[in-house]
Prior knowledge:
Elements: E1 6-12, H1 18-32, E2 39-45, H2 57-65, H3 82-85, E3 88-91, H4 94-103, E4 111-114, H5 133-155
Parallel strand pairs: 1-2, 1-3, 3-4
Helix pairs in contact: 1-2, 1-5
This protein binds 4-nitrophenyl phosphate.
The site of 4-nitrophenyl phosphate has 10 residues, from loops.
Amino acid sequence: MVLLQRRVLFVCLGNICRSPLAEGVFRHHVMQAGLEEQIYVDSAGTASWHQGKSPDIRSIQTAQKHGIDISRQQARQLHEEDFERFHYIVAMDESNLINIQDKAPYLHTANVRLLLEHEKKDVPDPYYGANEGFDGVYDLVRDGTYNLLQEIREEMDPAEI
Ligand code: 4NP
């Protein structure tokens, strides 16, 4: 049987604070569900400033507090090919969503959406704020990624899950 892999890309501005955390937490949910063969996860930034860098130390430490290691991730910029490679391109906030849509090729098949689409809420940018901001980001990302996984599971063939 050929299993179609779902590919999920989390996107923020710099790819060092929010989307690396979303990638790590979503992967954790995926592993807990035993779906790591069926669901591929990655993250990217709309800006190129931090390409090749590790996540912000505050995101690494926040993930670590919850038993999740994101220290080996490396920032990269969103590319046009991502719109063909990924089924879901998930923005952390409304301005990311606009930047993603600006980069999108005319015709593409990706489902481009906000992480907290149903709540119509942003995951706020914590970069210039206090350390505690990262705990708030974690809570939003944990719930948003969990709900996204449930949505994806509902769309999957029952034989796959
Ligand atoms: P992120 O946060 O988009 O969640 O990775 C930011 C990281 C870096 C900058 C802004 C936001 N920056 O201005 O360099």
